[in-house]
Amino acid sequence: MHYLDHAATTALRPEALAAMQRQWQQVGNPSSLHNAGRQARRTVEESREQIADLIGAKPADIVFTSGGTEADNLAVKGIARSGSKRRVLISAVEHHAVLDPADALVQEGFLVERIPVDADGRVDLVALASLLDDEVALVAVMWANNEVGTIEPIAEIAQMCAQRGIPLHSDAVQILGDPQFEVAAVPSVALSAHKVGGPVGVGALVLDRNLDVKPLIHGGGQERDVRSGTLDAAGIAGFAAALAAPAVDTRPLRDELITGIRQAVPDAILNGDPVRRLANNAHFSFPGCPGDALLMLLDAAHVAVSTGSACTAGIPQPSHVLMAMGADEAAARSSLRFSLGWNSTGEDVLAAVDALPKAVERARRAGGRR
Predict the structure, then answer these.
(1) CATH class held by domain 14-244
(2) Model pTM greater than 0.85?
C-alpha cells in the first residue's frame, strides 16, 4: 500500500515508540506523591518543557488533552462561556472539531457567525475587521486548512484580535511539525500528537494563562483546573519524542506530486493557495469524477488517499471547505486530498501518479462523463 493520507494520521515514529515503551515499563500515576508517581510526573513535565521549546511556547501554557478535538472543544466552549459576551466568529472553512462546538453554543444563546474566505480558502481580513466589535467573545481561525492546505494569515488575525482585546483560538493540528509553524502570539492553539508520528489519544491546548476558560471535564483538576483526568505519561512522552525527531521536509515530494498529477490529468485543478500551503498537502478537483469512486479505484490500485468531503453517519457530503471557497456542489464532490508524511517516498508519489489516469477515466465513465 502506498499511503498518501498522512493528514488523517501518520505512522508512529520509532523515537515515539521507544519513549512510550520506556514509560510503559514503569508504574505510577503522575498525581501520586510517592516516588513512582513523582517519576511519572517528571516524565510529563520534561515532555511539557520539550514540546514548549520546540513550538516556541511557555511550558506553563500547555494543557494536555486527549487530542485536537478535545483541545478545540475546550477552547471554543470554554472561552466563550467564561464571560458575558455572546458573539463567536469562526472561519467558514474550520474543521468540524470547531464547527460543531460552535453550533452547540448556538443552543445556549450565542450568535455564531462565519468569516468568509477567498477562492484559495484564505480568510477575508476586511470582512473579519467589519465583524469585530466589543461583543465578540472569541474568534476561531484554523492555522492551516486540513483539506486544501492553505495557511491562514494568522499573524495578522492575531494582531487584529489583540488590538480589540478579543481571544483568538487556532486549530494548528495540521501545521504542527511544518517548518512554517511557531505558536508566536496566538493565545489559544490546538495540537494533536498522531499527526506528527506520535500516538493517537494525546494532544494539547496551548493556552495563555491570562485567559479565563470554563472547564469541560471536572474531577481532579490535573491540568491547571482547566482539564481533569489522569495524565497519560507514556503517550505524552511519545508526543514529545515524535515532535523532537529529525524533521523531514516533504516540500520537494509535494511539488513532485503536484507536477505529476497535472501531467497525468491535465484538467485537474489544484485547490488552495499555490504558495502559502502546507508542506505535505496536494488537493485536487477532478472534473466529472465522483470523489468517492475515484478514491476506491485508487485504493484498488494500492494507493490510499482521502476525499475532500466530510462524511456524517456514512453519508457523503460535499466539502463545506470547497463550497465556502466558491466551488459548486459538483466540484466539491470531485476532489481528493493527497498528503505526505515523515516516511513518504518517491515510490509513493510515482504510484499515485501512475494509477491516476486509468482511475480518472473509469470514475468519469461511472459518473456519466467520457
Answers:
(1) alpha beta
(2) yes
